[in-house]
Design goal:
4-stranded mixed sheet, alpha/beta, 7-stranded parallel sheet, 60s Ribosomal Protein L30, Chain: A, Alpha/beta knot, single chain, 267 residues, elongated
Length: 267
């Protein structure tokens, strides 16, 4: 599909390009992170909104002049939660796997691998959680998976600009490369053979693999994990949404590491 710049009052086709960012927080974070914004469109009837004025101030500092649009411009957009702000950026800058695997600050590595998640809301929410807890990066496949598109950026609330995200051809091969670098691979599973998260040491260099919605981990990916980990469930509850499960497990990683660091400091 040919990519055309946004034009005042004219949206000939739905703006479903991957390089669209919408929503005040997502666009603000992209600007703050220095992403290349090519065009910024703002609803003229929201020009006095304090949050929007702050965004416009940052845009002006970056040398970017907003174009004020009428309601008809935004009414044609497929993005309903745009909050009167739509930006078009350069294509999303995926990181190399090496960047994701680069240690920092002497802390154990933590990488999140998404095994063919197709729901962009789940992908965005997981990226946001991974950024919040200081993970080193997120890895996702380039096929049969949601890439970093407009919906992912919105769901991540700007976090896609704050954490390296690598797109790889083969998840199993990437796991093998991580094992050679000394990472332990933990697969999130709810079935038999998985250990409760409280009984597993998650303080080491770690890659946490989150399986696809419904089907879970691919068999080959599951076989390549060093161990499987699950969230303890009460009777009658089968499973959690992928992004919720990822959030619970990632904060358990953070809890164990913070507890270990505090214990070491006291000693």
């Amino acid at each position: 599909m040919e990519r055309r710049p946004l034009a005042r009052g004219r949206v000939k086709a739905p703006l479903d390009f991957d390089d669209v960012i919408y929503g005040i927080h997502a666009v603000s974070e992209a600007l703050e992170a220095g992403e290349s914004i090519l065009a910024l469109h703002v609803a003229s009837d929201r020009a006095r909104d304090p949050a929007l004025r702050a965004l416009l101030s940052v845009a002006e500092e970056r040398g970017l002049r907003a174009r004020f649009e009428g309601r008809d411009f935004f009414a044609r957009l497929p993005y309903k939660a745009h909050q009167g702000v739509v930006a078009r950026s350069a294509p999303f800058p995926y990181a190399d796997l090496e960047e994701v695997l680069t240690p920092r600050d002497g802390t154990p590595l933590l990488v999140v691998i998404l095994d063919h998640l197709t729901d962009p809301h789940n992908v965005g929410a997981i990226v946001r959680t991974a950024a919040c807890i200081g993970a080193n990066g997120v890895v996702l496949p380039d096929r049969r998976s949601a890439g970093v598109n407009a919906t992912v950026r919105k769901a991540a609330a700007g976090a896609t600009a704050r954490i390296p995200i690598a797109q790889v051809t083969n998840i199993a091969q990437s796991i093998a490369a991580m094992k050679k670098r000394g990472l332990w691979i933990a697969g999130a599973e709810a079935g038999e053979g998985a250990l409760p998260m409280y009984e597993v040491d998650l303080r080491r260099d770690l890659a946490l693999v989150i399986g696809a919605e419904g089907s879970g981990l691919a068999p080959l990916v599951a076989r390549n994990c060093d161990f499987l980990v699950k969230i303890p469930m009460l009777a009658g509850v089968a499973s959690l949404n992928a992004s919720v499960a990822a959030g619970v497990l990632l904060y358990e990683v953070l809890r164990q590491r913070r507890f270990a660091a505090a214990a070491g400091h006291e000693a």
